Amino acid sequence: MAITLDIALAHLTSRKRQTLVSVTGVVLGVAFFLAVSGLMRGSEADFLKRLVDSSPHITVYDEVRQGRVQPAALQWPEGAVAVRNVRPLRETRGIRGWRQRLAFVEALPGVRAAPVLADAAVITFAGRQQGVTLSGVVPEKMKHVTTIEEKMQEGSLDALAADPNGVVIGRGLADKFSLHTGSTLVVLAADGSSRSLRVVGIFRTGNAAYDENQAFVLLKRAQALLGRVNRVNRVIIQLSDPYAAQTLAQTIEAATGYKSVSWIEASEDLLSLLLVRNIIMYSVVAAILVVAAFGMYNTISTIVMEKTRDIAIMKSMGFHPRDLRRIFLLEGAIVGFSGSVLGGLLGLALMQALAQVEIRPPGVTEVVHLPIFWGGTQFAMAVAFAMLSCLTASYLPARRAGRLRPVDILRGAT
Amino acid sequence: MSTAPPAGPVIQVEHVTRTLHGEIPVTLVDDVSLQIERGEFVCVMGPSGSGKSSLLYLLGLLDLPTTGRVWVDGQDTSGFDDDRLADFRLSRLGYVFQFHFLLPEFSALDNVSLPIRKLGRLRADAIDARAAELLDRFGLQGHHHKRPSQLSGGQRQRVAIARALANDPLVILADEPTGNLDSAASANVRDMLRDLTRESDKSVVAVTHDASFAAASDRRIGIVDGRIDMDWRP
After folding, report:
1. Which of chain A's residues have a Cβ under 8 Å away from the Cβ of B175?
2. In terms of CA atoms, which chain B residue is nearest residue A307?
3. CB distance A13–B105 less than 8 Å?
4. Which CATH number among 3.40.50.1100, 3.90.1150.10, 3.40.50.300, 3.90.25.10 corresponds to the domain B11-232?
5. Are residues A302 and A247 in the same domain?
6. Do A133 and A171 sit in the same domain of this protein?
7. A253 and A345 share a domain?
8. Which residues on B lie below 8 Å from A309 (Cβ)?
9. Same structural domain for residues A377 and A276?
10. In sequence order, what are the residues at sequence separation of 6 or more whose Cβ sits closer than 8 angstroms to the Cβ of residue B128?
11. Boundary of a domain, candidates A265, A300, A322
12. Which of A204, A264, A277, B33 has the greatest number of C-beta atoms within 10 Å?
């Protein structure tokens, strides 16, 4: 009703200083809420991005979580059948029918997948040896599921496609063995077979162990070298929505029968750490708004106390208790709303300023900016929390105003 | 106690008692029965603390009697809830207090239009027209947009009277309406209230200490210790 809004606005505009203090409290609360949560969620997203980028969203292994159920046990599930001393057929290890399974996975929405044959191998160069994980990849597919292409310092992954005898190694190994693009090294497989390969690319991820112990070759080359023709033992999957990994991994595992591990499953401990961090962060920023709400409560109660005569006259005039409650709740809502809008703007400015901050982690040459999360949800949360605390803070004085009996005030006044 | 409300009087109270409960219960109004007729200019007098203001609050439905009944405009108000009482006050009663009690943030015009807007029977332009007409009637031309703090005591009290008349009430209840004014302003307010009862059939019930006020009235009611001590029509 416009009449209550008019009175609420009149109360607020006639005590500009107090109103300003209340609004400022909410503005600062909302702005800090945004800046802190933007920074925290930004760093969380940054951390997750690194986590998610450095490892596949889902990896399908050539393993099963549980051994196969024997046909006899399937035939008579309730029967007294026991199959003992089962020895699986000896076969070349790998994902059976990987082309069909890869095709199935790739047909799922928002999924990019790449087949990999990874196994241990030894790289020898000038009499020195280094055990590595040798991954046979299809460069065209691999580029889309890992960030390795971005981490290339020399050459590229595509060079593998051009040179079937090429190998891509990490900076750590290259430095250790003084290798350059064009250097020739020898790769020894576990069964003793070996092959000379030429370095066609060098990557640097920043992860020292990875940079020293990882080498990429063409899938066909790895299959030949490791004696596992036409096999892959891993399918690496990247999703457009990394958070769908858990459910999708279950779907894939159910469909293919092979163990599918999502990054969420692989880094459960880190994720629970992030959750705790978020709880702490939201408690702290919420505390700021609670303090602002106390300022708000103070202002509205002061207005109610100063306005007892006005309340008395309005009630004697015929205003209902709910009209009076509405006036003071509206005052809370107005302060909350204007504080939210201004606080949102100030918060944006703070976030903008924070995003400009440059940090140089020790030992790293590139300049890193503070990661800021710009999502709309935190704005909605800040506004919702500000409005909630303002309405709660004004509810008590509003209720008191609604309960005041005009005759008590008139008796006191005359 | 009769149950059928008489149609005639604008306010009727029967055996009304108001007791404040506390450590020591205080009886403010003690078994008062009285009728206010339409068009009457009634003056309630008595020493301080005699209960005259308390009686006025009961007549004006601002307070509820501990025992007894109050009829306003022929309706028994004893079963009314707060909202119903508020609606009744809004449409049928007007108040003028010793202190003007205008809302300080609003102009004279807005103060007068507030109860009209609250009642919601008129359209926005008609509300302003009515408020302006009331202010003009009490000689406040040119003061419509002034805040209460920019008006003199007498002017404020005239705005308060205009506000009391905003919804064309049956009765104006005035509690020491001239208590805060000099003699010229007092006479002015007194004449205005009296003229209301002459020009229409509105009734005015005024609590006052002012002898000249009493002299202008149709009826004087004296209150002592919460009881009617005198009820005299000159």
Report:
1. 410, 414
2. B103
3. yes
4. 3.40.50.300
5. no
6. yes
7. no
8. 99, 101
9. yes
10. B109, B113
11. A265
12. A264
The verdict on A307 and A394 lying in the same domain is yes
Co-location of A296 and A248 in the same domain:
no
Predicted local distance difference test score (pLDDT) of residue A317: 87
Nearest residue to A213 via CA among A171, A253, A244, A181: A171
**HEC profile of A329-394:** HHHHHHHHHHHHHHHHHHHHHHHHHHHHCEECCCCCCCCEECCCCCCHHHHHHHHHHHHHHHHHHH
Q: Residues A180, A199: one domain?
A: yes
What does the block give as tokens for B113? Answer: 């239009």
Reduced to 3 states, what is the DSSP secondary structure of residue A30?
helix
> Which residue in the set A312, A317, A405 is minimally distant from B90, CB to CB?
A317
- The chain B residue lying nearest A323, using CA atoms, is B118
Residue A320 and residue A231 in one domain: no
d(CA A44, CA A140): 31
Closest CA to B207 of B63, B47, B14, B77: B47
Tell me the pLDDT tens digit for each residue of A188-227. Answer: 988 888 889 999 999 988 788 888 999 999 999 999 888 8
pTM for this prediction = 0.70
Q: ipTM of this model?
A: 0.85
Sheet-wide strand order for B219-224: B93-96, B171-175, B203-207, B41-45, B219-224, B227-232
Domain assignment of residue A98, given as a range: 59-66+92-265
Q: CB contacts < 8 Å between A and B, how many? A: 80
Residues in chain B closer than 8 A to A322 (CB atoms): 83
* Cβ within 8 Å, pair A313-B97: yes
Q: pLDDT value at position A365?
A: 65
Structural domain contains residue A77: no
Residue of A nearest to B84 (CA): A320
pLDDT tens figures, A111-146: 889 999 999 999 998 888 889 999 999 998 888 888
Report CB contact under 8 Å: A410, B89.
no
